[in-house]
Amino acid sequence: MDKSLTKLFPYLKPYKHNIIWNVTYNILYALFATISMLTLLPVLDVLFGKTKTILSKPIYTGIGNIKQFGTDYLYYQISTLTQGSSIQVALLFVVLMVITTFLLKNLFNYLASYHIMHLKNGVLKDLKKSMYDKIIDLPISYYSEKRKGDIMARMLGDVNEVQNSFFSILELVVKEPLTILFTLVTMFIISTKLTLFVLVFMPISGYIISKVAKNLRAQSLEAQQESGFLISILDETLGGLKVIKSYNSEPNFKNRFDGSVMRLLNLSNSIGTKNNLATPLSEFLGVTTIAILLFYGGNLVLIDKTLDGSAFIVYLTLAFNILTPAKAISKASYAVKNGLAAAERVFEVLEVENEIVSKENATIKTTFESEISIQNINFKYEDEAVLKDFSLSVKKGQTVALVGQSGSGKSTIANLLTRFYDVNDGTITIDGINIKDMNLQSLRGLMGLVTQDSILFNDTIKANIALGKLDASDEEITAALKIANALEFVNELPQGIHTNIGDSGNKLSGGQKQRLSIARAVLKNPPIMILDEATSALDTESEKFVQVALENMMQNRTSIVIAHRLSTIQKADVIIVMQKGKIVEQGSHEQLIALNGTYNKLVTMQSFES
C-alpha cells in the first residue's frame, strides 16, 4: 500500500461512519444498477409477446437452476397479477418495476455521494488546519531555506488536489468494481459462453490503459513543484514592486514568470493529454468489445439458437453497463496518481521535525528576578560562525546596548534570546534557568520585541497593537500609543484606532509603522525589552520623540538595545562593541570614548555622516 495513503488514515478516522455509509450505499447502487438492467427483460418479453404464463410457484433447487428459477419466479408474479386482465396491465407492471429499480439505483447513488462529500470536505478542513498549525509552529530557520510560494502552493493547491483526486479511491475499490462484478455475474447467468468471450478482451484493455498512465505521478509532482515556484515569483513581485520598477527590472521578472508559465503549460498539457485520453480510450476499447460481441452473440441467436433475442438485448445493455464503471476506474486511477503526488508534498511539510519546542514538563516562568546570562555560546546559521565563544551578563533593570558593524552578530543575539534559533554550544539562562528548559510560550511572554522591519498586519490599528494582549481596552491602546508618540497621527486618521492600515501597514509611513510596533511592545508590558534597530526607520524628529518614549518605557525594565545609530544608546548602562561575533570593548559611553578604540572610531564616523 502506498505510504501517502497510510498517512491519510488518521484523517479518515473521524469520518469512518461516512465511509461505512458510502460503501453500503455504493454496494446497493451496484446491485440495483444490475437489477435495473435486468428488469428490461420482462418488458421486452411483454412487447414481443413472449411472456410465459406460470401459475404454480416455482421451487428453488440450488445454484445450478438460479437463472431458470429467477425467470420463472418473475413470470409467476406477472401471471398472478395479470390473470384475467389485458396485456396492458402486464406492461404497466413491468414498466413500474423498471421505474422503481432505476429510482432506487439513483437514490443510493445520491446517498453515497452525500457521504463522500462530507468525508472529502471534512478531511480537506482537517488537512488545511494541520498544515496551517505546522506552518505556524515550524521554526524561523525552516523558512530561510524554503520559498514562501512553494509552502503556499502546498497549502492551497496540493491539499485541494488531495481532496479532488484522492477520494476517487473509494469509487475505485467499491462502487465501480462491484458494478462490474454484479454485472458480470448476471452476464454469466444469461450466457457463460458469451461472457468468457468478453473476458478475453478486458485484460488487453487494462494493459493498454496502464501503459498510457505511466509516468503520470512523476509529472504531477513536477507540475506541483513548478506551481510553487510560480506563486513564489508572484509573491516576490508583489513584495518588491518598488525595487523592480525603480531598477527597470520588469522585463527580467516577466521572463522569469513566462519561463515558469511555459514549463507549467507543457507539464499540464502532457498530464491533461493522458487524463483526457482515459475516457475515449476506454470507451473505444469497450465499444470494440461490444462490436465483436454483437457479431459472436448474433450467431448464437440467429444460427445456434442457443440464446433468446430478448436475453441478448439485455445482455448487450449489461455489457454497456460495464463501460461506464470501466471508464470511471481508468479516470479514477489517473486522479489517484495526481492525488498521491499531491499528498506526498503535503506530508513532506507535515512530517518536518520541529527542533525548537518546549520540553516535556518545561518550567513556566512569568517573572524576571535577577539576570540574563549568556555563557560561551557558539552559533552559525550555515557554515560560517556568527558568534564565537560569546559571553554576556545582563542584570535586572540594566539597559545593555549592542553595537558594531553589519554582520557582527548583534541581531543574532535577539534571535537566540527569543529561541527563534538555538545555540550550537554554550547556554543562555534567565535567573539561572536554561531557556531550553523553559516553556517556549512563557519565555517569549517575558519579552517584547521591536524589530528593524515593522511587521504589521492587514487589520485595524487596535488589532495590530493588541496582538500580545487581545483583551486590551481602548484606553490601554491609547496609553500605549501615547508612550510610543503615535497618538497624534492615529487621532488624525478617519476612524482613529479602528482604521484599517492595509497590507503590511502600507497606508502608513515607515516612521508611523515603527511607532505602532513600539506601541505593541509597550502594551504587552514585558519585563525584558529587545529593541533590534527599533528607531532605524524613523525620521530625525520622530526619532527624538520615540527615543524619549523608549527611555521612559525602559525605566524599571531590562532592555537589550541593538543599535546602528549610536546617538540613541548613549545613556545605556553598558555598551557592548562587537566585531565578527566577538566582544572587542565594553563599558559606558564615557568609558568607551576615553578608551579611544573601536567605539570612538564608530562615533566619530557617525558624527561626520550626520
How far apart, in Å, are the first and last alpha carbons? 69 Å
> Which fold does the CATH topology of the largest domain refer to?
ABC transporter transmembrane region fold
Strand order of the largest sheet: 6-7-8-3-9-10
Helix content: 55-70%
CATH superfamily of the largest domain: ABC transporter type 1, transmembrane domain
CATH architecture of the largest domain: Up-down Bundle
- If you average the pLDDT, what whole number results? 80
Q: What class, by secondary structure content?
A: alpha/beta
Using only C-alpha atoms, the radius of gyration works out to: 37 Å
Assess the beta-strand content as a share of residues: 5-15%
How many separate structural domains?
A: 2
Largest sheet: 6 strands, mixed
| Shape summary | elongated
Q: pLDDT under 50 segments (min length 5)?
A: none
Number of strands: 10
How many helical stretches?
22
The CATH class name of the largest domain reads Mainly Alpha
Provide a brief overview of the structure:
The protein has about 600 residues and is α/β, with parallel strands linked by helices. Helix content is about 65%, strand content about 10%.
Considering the chains and any ligands shown, give keywords for the structure:
610 residues; alpha/beta; ABC transporter transmembrane region fold; Rossmann fold; four-stranded antiparallel beta sheet
